[in-house]
């Protein structure tokens, strides 16, 4: 029904009421003085009508008006009579009224007019007035103010539009039966129904609250309504298609004029908010998982464990099920860890060269996520063959350089979550530096573990916070024992080289921490837990944090130089021994010259003396001279300057020959045991020197057994390796014969063993030993290119082992063959001219006299230069040269021999010396024409050697 129709209905009702009142008035007796006419309405009708009622004549003059119309114009009804519209309305409006009236009077038809009159919305019914003849005599009007109604209608219209366009759903629910009486479009659209489908349905049709029944929900809502007058909360609705819809609902209760008691429920769709909240919760959970992952991996101490954590956490963050970690090694990316890869796929991808396109892309762009399927489809085909639909590569980098990459993959075609992948990228970037650091630390530890030098890191207070295996070995402590120990600990017992104690604050690391400067090459002696001491050379350097001037720690490296120190001590001892040897050698040289002269003079005196008593005295003097010669030989052996006659030597038979003499020397309380082995190889040795070595060792063993004991001599063939021979001066690896002398005596302490071979060191009482015995043994064996070793323990005796090189089937030197029967004169067929070269005048004179007496012609010279001049004059006459080795001037005896033999190859040369083994080859003569004789030499051996050389001349 239109608004106009409503107004007409109301006017019709008013007209009916007016008619009823008019009829009632007509039935009343007429007034005493009636003043009514046919053209004027009864006053009772006019004044009781709520509408504006008026009447005008044909000239538009008011002929009647009720009180409502007069009030509207602000006048009394009487003031209106005879007036026109122009008297009360604006000209334009009055003119418009008049035109309408003219039209009605002309047509005789009624008009319904809705118009605004001076700001008020009016609805007018205008109709023609007729006289008794039926002619139109004027206009009658009923006007109703419809402003409030129009406003209400507009409000209703706007509200209807608002309900239709509201984002929230609105429904009216009958309280009595719970049916839906009204819903706006949004309400049924949210639930997927049409309006007709919802109207009349019970509210439980759409309610889907899981925890309570619809009745319980209704009861709760009613309780809240009674208590507060309204209810608000979240409800879960069920759509027509069965899906669920979360809504924020507010419900209020009111009485409807038609529907009665109803609930008005306004519901807002909060599904998006709920999903956003769930997504936010998932993001928050993912962010927390990422944070925990970063913390977990950053706290790792092992790179492999960190890689495994990164792999599993990356799979979890990416919402995928497959992953792998690759590391760059050289020019190849190597698969280190994987989860979920097909075992048959792994061999195909476990090593990827740097020129592989996606690996090259990772190296070039170390901060990007690479979609292998999109960026490198050709390579992705391999993965697709094993069911991988998505493969994402995330670089691992440190210092802006990639060192590997993480792969996350899926067999699903569902689109990857970009947020999740970005979180994996963040995880890889955040933990890459940690993993690189752990790898570097592992490499450094591997390097430190292989270093021979000890390394310790000390904190600011000097406490050891890290060390390598070499430090544990050198210091004799485990890592656990070292950690926390400081340089201030008195248990180190540290001393400098000069014997001063090194206080803890003076340790190089503490000095470095205190001064912020390195401290280098400090040599210290420290106590080791096993009771020994070691020498170490320490270097310390401070360590600084970036931007800091004070060190936070110090790193010390130290080398065990104990062996070097021992070698230095041995070198110093050797230098002292060498100096002493040079002194002894020089003295021995002079004594040899004196003894040689004495012995030759004694021989001459014996030949000229016929008195038996005098001859006996001369022989006694000769014996004393030979004893002096042996003593000098000992000094030269100690100084390694004696001239040895080294030749193949049967050690076993010679020791057997000496056993009777040794038994007498060691005494009856010492039992000597020797069982010569069979098939023992010959050794290269000087017979007299070896006998002296054996004698010295046996006498030492006797002195170690003052109460008697057992002395065991043993021989064995052994093979000496390079490690052993390197400790012997001049020795080379190979076959040796070991001579062992073992006693059951008191043994030796460590401090005695360290000084055992020092010259003049002895543990015997005054007058019981010279201290040269063992020094001489070492000197002789060193000249033989062999070695000496000692095993001893206090109370358990001692074993001395002497190693002599095997002869290797070498033939003995002709010059070392046993001389024929000793004689002091040359036979007639061996008369010869000898060039005698000797710088010692007394020795030269007696030698000349002795050789002349023996039947030789002698030319003498005081130096090699003088001898060379004589040679040039008499070379055709000279048959043999007899020269001293060491000569004053530029030319030595050897050089003279070499010059002359170069001119006369058949010339024989005898070189005499008790000195300077450096100029004489101890194994064999460098030239078969040369023969060496030691000084002093018995006169008969001198003559015998000369005769042997003359006989050996080529014809």
Describe the protein's architecture and organization.
It is built from 30 helices and 34 strands. With 955 residues, it is of the alpha+beta class. The strands form 7 sheets. It has a 6-stranded antiparallel β-sheet, with helices on both faces. Strands 18-17-22-21-20-19 form a 6-stranded antiparallel β-sheet, with helices on both faces. Strands 2-1-5-4-3 form a 5-stranded antiparallel β-sheet, with helices on both faces. α11 (303-318) runs antiparallel to α16 (418-450) and α21 crosses α26 (773-783). The termini are far apart. Residues 30-41, 765-770, 809-823 and 916-925 have low confidence and may be disordered.
Strand arrangement, major sheet: 13-12-11-16-15-14
Summarize the amount of helix as a percent range.
40-55%
How many β-strand stretches?
34
Termini separation comes to 170 Å
Gyration radius, in Å? 68 Å
Form type: rod-shaped
- Extract low-pLDDT stretches: 30-41, 765-770, 809-823, 916-925
What's the short story on this structure?
This protein is of the alpha+beta class.
């Amino acid at each position: 029904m239109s608004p106009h129709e409503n107004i007409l209905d109301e006017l019709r009702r008013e007209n009916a009421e007016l008619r009823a009142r008019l009829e009632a008035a007509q039935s009343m007796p007429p007034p005493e003085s009636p003043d009514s006419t046919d053209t004027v309405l009864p006053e009772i009708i006019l004044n009781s009508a709520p509408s504006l009622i008026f009447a005008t004549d044909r000239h538009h003059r008011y002929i009647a008006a009720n009180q409502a119309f007069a009030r509207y114009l602000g006048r009394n009804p009487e003031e209106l009579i005879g007036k026109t519209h122009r008297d009360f309305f604006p000209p334009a409006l009055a003119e418009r009224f008049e035109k309408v009236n003219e039209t009605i009077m002309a047509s005789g038809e009624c008009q319904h007019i809705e118009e605004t009159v001076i700001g008020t919305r009016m609805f007018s019914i205008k109709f023609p007035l007729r006289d008794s003849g039926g002619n139109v005599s004027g206009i009658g009007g009923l006007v109703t103010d419809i402003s409030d109604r129009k406003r209400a209608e507009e409000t209703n219209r706007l509200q209807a539009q608002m309900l239709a366009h509201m984002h929230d759903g609105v429904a009216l629910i009958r309280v009595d039966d719970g049916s839906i009486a009204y819903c706006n479009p949004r309400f049924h659209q949210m639930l997927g129904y049409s309006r007709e489908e919802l109207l009349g349905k019970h509210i439980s049709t759409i309610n889907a609250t899981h925890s309570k029944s619809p009745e319980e929900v209704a009861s709760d809502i009613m309780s809240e309504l009674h208590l507060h007058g309204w209810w608000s909360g979240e409800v879960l609705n069920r759509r027509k298609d069965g899906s669920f819809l979360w809504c924020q609902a507010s419900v209020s209760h009111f009485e409807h004029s038609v529907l009665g008691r109803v609930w008005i429920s306004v519901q807002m769709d909060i599904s998006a908010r709920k999903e956003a909240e769930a997504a936010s919760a998932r993001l928050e959970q993912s962010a927390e998982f990422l944070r925990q992952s970063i913390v977990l991996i950053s706290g790792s101490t092992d790179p492999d464990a960190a890689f495994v954590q990164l792999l599993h956490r990356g799979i979890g963050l990416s919402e995928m099920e497959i992953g792998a970690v690759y590391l760059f090694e050289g020019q190849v990316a190597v698969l280190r860890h994987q989860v979920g890869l097909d075992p048959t796929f792994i061999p195909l991808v476990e090593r990827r060269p740097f020129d592989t396109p996606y690996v090259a892309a990772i190296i070039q762009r170390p901060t990007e996520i690479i979609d292998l399927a999109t960026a490198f489809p050709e390579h992705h085909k391999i993965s697709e063959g094993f069911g991988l639909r998505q493969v994402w590569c995330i670089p691992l980098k440190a210092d802006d350089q990639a060192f590997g990459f993480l792969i996350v993959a899926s067999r699903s075609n569902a689109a990857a979550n970009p947020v999740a992948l970005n979180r994996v990228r963040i995880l890889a970037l955040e933990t890459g530096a940690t993993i690189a650091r752990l790898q570097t630390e592992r490499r450094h530890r591997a390097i430190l573990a292989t270093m021979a030098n000890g390394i310790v890191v000390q904190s600011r207070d000097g406490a050891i916070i890290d060390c390598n295996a070499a430090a544990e070995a050198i210091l004799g402590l485990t890592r656990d024992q070292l950690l926390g120990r400081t340089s201030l600990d008195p248990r180190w017992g540290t001393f400098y080289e000069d014997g001063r104690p090194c206080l803890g604050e003076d340790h190089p690391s503490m000095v470095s921490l205190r001064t912020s400067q390195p401290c280098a090459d400090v040599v210290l002696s420290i106590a080791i837990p096993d009771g020994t001491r070691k020498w170490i050379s320490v270097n310390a350097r401070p360590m600084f944090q970036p931007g800091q001037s004070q060190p936070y720690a110090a790193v010390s490296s130290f080398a065990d130089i104990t062996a070097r120190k021992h070698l230095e001590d041995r070198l110093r001892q050797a230098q002292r021994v060498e100096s002493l040897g040079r002194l002894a050698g020089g003295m021995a040289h002079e004594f040899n010259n004196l003894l040689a002269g004495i012995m030759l003079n004694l021989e001459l005196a014996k030949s000229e003396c016929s008195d038996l008593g005098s001859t006996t005295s001369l022989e006694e003097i000769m014996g004393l001279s030979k004893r002096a010669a042996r003593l000098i030989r000992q000094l030269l052996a100690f100084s390694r300057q004696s001239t040895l006659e080294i030749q193949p030597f049967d050690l076993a038979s010679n020791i057997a020959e000496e056993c009777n003499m040794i038994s007498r020397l060691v005494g009856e309380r010492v039992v000597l045991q020797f069982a010569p082995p069979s098939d023992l190889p010959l050794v290269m040795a000087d017979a007299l020197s070896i006998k002296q070595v054996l004698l010295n060792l046996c006498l030492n063993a006797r002195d170690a057994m003052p109460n008697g004991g057992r002395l065991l001599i043993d021989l064995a063939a052994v093979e000496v390796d390079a490690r052993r021979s390197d400790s012997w001066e001049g020795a080379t690896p190979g076959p040796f014969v070991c001579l062992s002398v073992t006693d059951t005596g008191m043994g030796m302490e460590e401090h005695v063993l360290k000084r055992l071979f020092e010259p003049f060191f002895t543990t015997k009482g005054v007058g019981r030993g010279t201290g040269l015995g063992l020094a001489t043994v070492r000197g002789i064996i060193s000249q033989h290119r062999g070695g000496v070793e000692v095993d001893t323990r206090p109370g358990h005796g001692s074993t001395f082992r002497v190693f002599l090189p095997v002869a290797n089937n070498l033939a003995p030197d002709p010059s070392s063959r046993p001389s024929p029967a000793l004689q002091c004169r040359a036979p007639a067929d061996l008369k010869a001219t000898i060039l005698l070269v000797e710088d010692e005048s007394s020795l030269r004179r007696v030698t000349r006299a002795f050789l002349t007496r023996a039947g030789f012609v002698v030319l003498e010279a005081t130096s090699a230069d003088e001898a060379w001049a004589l040679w040039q004059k008499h070379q055709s006459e000279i048959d043999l040269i007899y020269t001293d080795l060491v000569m004053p001037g530029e030319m030595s005896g050897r050089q003279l021999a070499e010059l002359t033999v170069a001119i006369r190859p058949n010339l024989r040369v005898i070189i005499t010396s008790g000195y300077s083994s450096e100029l004489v080859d101890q194994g064999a003569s460098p030239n078969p024409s040369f023969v060496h004789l030691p000084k002093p030499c018995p006169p008969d051996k001198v003559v015998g050697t000369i005769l042997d050389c003359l006989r050996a001349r080529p014809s």
